[in-house]
Specification:
The protein is mostly helical. It has a domain of 216 residues. Helices cover 77% and strands 2% of the residues. The chain has 21 helices and two strands. The protein has a two-stranded antiparallel ribbon with strand order 1-2.
Length: 497
């Protein structure tokens, strides 16, 4: 076995140990451990990506060399490594971008706890990406839920505690349905490893036995993960959770947590149920309908908002709808578009949240639209970054959002039945996106007659500005050099089969 094959397991364990170590450290030391961890994770997962691309095949790492059912497995392919690498990059940039506000948002004595939670959250995300075992996936789903809840409520004001409670209730509902689905799968197949389950599911489906229990199982897993990823109409917890948590937490929750659950669902579709069986179950059609509703409802809700943070949060409802629309098309092209949009939305939405905090800081701390008038002149870095993120969300060429919408349109054309509703809703959603994002861009670039606001310079916000530049570069790379990324996604999906 090549040494690099150990890296996925090492990356998960490193995050767990870093969380344990940071619990006994002071703020600065915990921050240092967190940053060193993220840089190490980027290197490790980049090595795994290069290795899987070079070999052209996925591999399985058996934890402790114990066979099933006592041991569990980690599976690494091109798509898993690419996703893990991207998650690590986004988390690093989100934490660095929100650092300047962390001291104001989190009590001094709890700062170390914030980094403990982010370390554990990253371990759960990496485990969801790499695991080849449903029980392990469920365990880390719960770790993900607890840590995400902690990140929401660590700010400790009335709104965040309420948001955390709502998030916990909805997440537990989703987790319960997911667990029921896993239990039914185990009852039907007698296995927890994904590869073994898939063999048994195909056999059950071919013989025609237990069709109804299998359909119920697929429905439970799909609904459970849809709830956890905030698909309409299960999104009620999302606006407050994203809108009132710390800026880093909002960026991480919107870009990574919900995407981790969606990636797990995609993995289950291919690696557990089988793409054809999932398609024939018609559950995919229900997801498609909910996705179209999310794209319209999320955008309409964003238009009505007068709070920039909550507007960005409602925009996430619509963008999650985009991802599920691609899944609901039931084609390989639709799935590729969905995965690319996971990357595109993660890079763009984190950029918007980080940029928004800069704009509000120079507007006397107010998040209301009227208060943001001229904010882009007071903080030029945040203004440019927010504009780039907005243009990407609208789908302007040169940015990642444009590629996403092109891929979705191409995927829609390949499905004659769903082509018309998909293209119509895609067009409507794009227009609605332009309304509320361009409205905000115009507002922040509208001059004001008086200048009783704080002004910022690069000298005062060096790290913050560098983070914004990195986010912008990442967005442009996805928009200009998208084909290599799309090729890697398609190669990874082929390895899933």
């Amino acid at each position: 076995m090549d040494f690099v094959q150990n890296f996925p397991a090492v990356s998960i364990l490193l995050c767990l140990f870093a969380g344990i170590i940071s619990s006994g450290l002071r703020k600065n030391a915990a921050r240092f451990v967190n940053k060193a961890l993220l840089l190490t994770e980027i290197v490790l997962n980049a090595c795994v990506l290069l290795y899987t691309v070079r070999t052209g095949e996925a591999y399985v790492y058996v934890m402790g060399k114990f066979p099933a059912p006592w041991g569990n497995e980690i599976r690494a392919g091109v798509l898993e490594a690419l996703t893990a690498l991207f998650f690590c990059i986004i988390m690093l940039l989100s934490l660095e971008g929100g650092r300047k506000k962390l001291a104001d948002e989190v009590e001094e004595g709890k700062t170390f706890l914030y980094y403990v939670l982010t370390d554990l959250l990253l371990s759960s995300l990496l485990a969801l990406v790499y695991t080849n075992d449903l029980f392990t996936a469920y365990v880390f789903v719960e770790i993900n839920t607890i840590t995400a809840c902690g990140l929401i409520m660590i700010r400790q004001n009335g709104r965040t505690i309420e948001a955390a409670a709502r998030y916990m209730i909805m997440s537990l509902l989703g987790s319960g349905l997911l667990l029921m689905g896993i239990c039914m799968l185990y009852d039907l197949t007698g296995h927890l490893l994904m590869s073994n389950i898939k063999e048994q599911v195909e056999m059950i489906y071919a013989t025609g036995d237990y069709r109804i229990p299998l359909l119920v199982t697929i429905a439970l897993i799909s609904v459970g993960l849809s709830i956890k990823s905030a698909l309409f109409p299960f999104h009620a917890w999302l606006p407050d959770a994203y809108g009132y948590s710390t800026v880093s937490s909002a960026a991480i929750l919107s870009s990574l947590v919900s995407k981790g659950y969606i990636f797990l669902l995609i993995k289950i579709i291919y690696r557990v149920i089988g793409f054809e069986i999932f398609h024939n179950s018609r559950i995919i059609d229900i997801l498609f309908v909910f996705a179209l509703m999310a794209m319209v409802f999320g955008s309409l809700s964003a238009i009505r908002e007068n709070d920039v943070r909550r507007m960005i949060a409602f925009s996430s409802v619509a963008q999650i709808g985009y991802i599920y629309m691609g899944i609901g098309m039931g084609t390989q092209a639709g799935m590729s578009a969905s995965i690319f949009h996971i990357f595109s939305h993660a890079a763009t939405k984190s950029l918007l949240f980080i940029a928004a905090i800069g704009l509000t800081d120079v507007s006397n701390g107010s998040r209301k639209f009227l208060s943001l008038t001229g904010a882009a002149y007071r903080d030029k870095w945040a203004g440019v970054a927010f504009t780039v993120g907005s243009l990407s969300m609208v789908g302007v060429p040169l940015f990642s959002g444009f590629i996403s919408k092109i891929l979705f349109a191409q995927a829609a054309v390949q499905n004659e039945i769903k082509m018309l509703p998909a293209l119509i809703v895609l067009g409507i959603s794009t227009i609605l996106n332009a309304i509320y994002f361009m409205k905000t861009v115009i507002r922040i670039y509208t001059p004001v007659g008086h200048t009783n606001y704080d002004m910022v310079t690069f000298k005062n916000i060096k790290l913050y500005a560098v983070t914004l530049v990195c986010f912008v570069i990442l967005n442009v790379i996805l928009g200009v050099s998208s084909q290599p990324i799309v090729d890697l996604i398609e190669q990874g999906l082929a390895m899933f089969a």
